[in-house]
Amino acid sequence: MIYNMDTLYEAVAAKGPVCVGLDTVADYIPPAERRKAASEAGAILAFNLALIDGTADAAACYKVQIACYEALGLAGLETYAKTLRCIRERGIPVIADIKRGDIADMALRYAAAHFSGDFEADFVTLSPYMGMDSIEPWLSWADKAGKGAFVLMRTSNRGMRDFEYQELKSGGRLYDAVGTKLAELAAGRSGVHGYGVFGAVIGCTEREEAAAIRKKGRNLFFLIPGYGAQGGAAEDAALLLCDGNGGVVNASRSLLRAWMPAAAEEDPDRVNNVRAAEAARRALIEMRDAIRAAAGPAKT
Amino acid sequence: MIYNMDTLYEAVAAKGPVCVGLDTVADYIPPAERRKAASEAGAILAFNLALIDGTADAAACYKVQIACYEALGLAGLETYAKTLRCIRERGIPVIADIKRGDIADMALRYAAAHFSGDFEADFVTLSPYMGMDSIEPWLSWADKAGKGAFVLMRTSNRGMRDFEYQELKSGGRLYDAVGTKLAELAAGRSGVHGYGVFGAVIGCTEREEAAAIRKKGRNLFFLIPGYGAQGGAAEDAALLLCDGNGGVVNASRSLLRAWMPAAAEEDPDRVNNVRAAEAARRALIEMRDAIRAAAGPAKT
Questions:
Q1: Total domain count for chain A?
Q2: pTM to 2 decimal places
Q3: B300 found inside a domain
Q4: Do residue A129 and residue B133 have CB atoms under 8 angstroms apart?
Q5: What are the C-alpha distances in Å from A26 to residues A266, A275, A291?
Q6: B68: CATH
Q7: Residue A300 domain-assigned?
Q8: pLDDT of residue A46
Q9: Within a domain: residue A25?
Q10: Which domain holds residue B65?
Q11: Catalytic residue list contains A82
Q12: ipTM of the complex
């Protein structure tokens, strides 16, 4: 079995650690393209396809945030399905950012939903609140189809201090307890590059803890949000990598809206999706190079 | 503003505390009906509509588990949307069991998804792992449209011991910390019956803690899973109510599959959806009466 986590590792080695987050909403789309589209869901699909086309050579993977698509109902989810399909047809790994978490039999239903059929992705994100019996059922898809997951451990929002940061009587914080369970999972099910087939979500917003988290979660591949708009810098992200690999750093707004500053100086109506994608690619390359400079070149 | 939580309270006073869980999967549908349907999603829709028709007079509300529908892709979500619409058209409260939880701007997208449009429900379930900034954005819909939510606090699965049960250095368990935050929310935003417009999910599987949880969460309306198939009894559920109100007790499998034992003694092919719904109604009434007997009559 070739695990998707190995494919992702190899993509990072070849293309750098940037994950392009397709948290696409109407406001991010050039106005001329919005007017041209028959519907909001249609406008988002056209924008996504152009973005993928323009960034495929430099993106390690894509992450598609389902909330943006669910918000538009059935039409939005059709766009979601088509976006995933377009990425997978190019052989690029795609992470479904769904943050699901439910009891075991429902976990299996959700896994069928997001690892096969209309919404098939290569990876999902999961929420651990209900415990490991809400996570483990998803693992059956690792051996069946190579699928992987990233479990929320320490996120990049301010509210993470409410519960994730709670200190436990048994030592460490709640997110450490989640990390320990995930490292156990990883020890039991790893790919050829030494990383567990399930990894963890670690925001790059808290520099002082990064080295300890990386050391403790040596065998965990990280999905790293919080870069750019949320405050994380290249140096913060680099601390969560390991020889430039072992993680992907997500950026969404800073890439999708990269066309805006230049457009503000001329007629924004002249910007189309292709130009937006070119601007996203330039921003992606800049981000990748900044992380590479901070982390050193990726080990191959 | 009439809050949905008040409407739900009044439904419990009038009809008892049973929430019918439409976690419908193909295996629960009489074989003759499954064969008749053009698709799995179509079979589930027909079953749901019959079930709703047969139980509407005795159900306080319905809970629809989206995992069962997501598993069937776009067609499944169309059935999900139609099921919600059928319940809302009857003026009965419906809970979307979605357990979403994401950063603030995504919480707003999810809220738009599940409080308006194709997937509009009266209540949702939410997961608190990421903190209160993943919960609070949903609250804007309480004042805008009366909407409510139930936040996972202590669930009914075995895995809840992994994290929800972790003892905190500051005292209490993780689920207590969640409860404290929810009680604060409830204190700030309550309906006419004294319950917060957002409540909590509390499984009825741990009898020894029930009285303390009920006492501490005096102003929290509870969504109570774990009855029946998961091991909770009427007495356990009753301990989480308050004068027979202040909570709804969910049952799914035990109602949806209620037609099976009788069918096993004759030709199961003779059972149709209407008979399945009649069996579900009988099981519902029995459950309601058992909880009422244990809790005393509902205060009106």
A1: 1
A2: 0.97
A3: no
A4: no
A5: 21, 16, 29
A6: 3.20.20.70
A7: no
A8: 98
A9: yes
A10: 4-295
A11: no
A12: 0.97
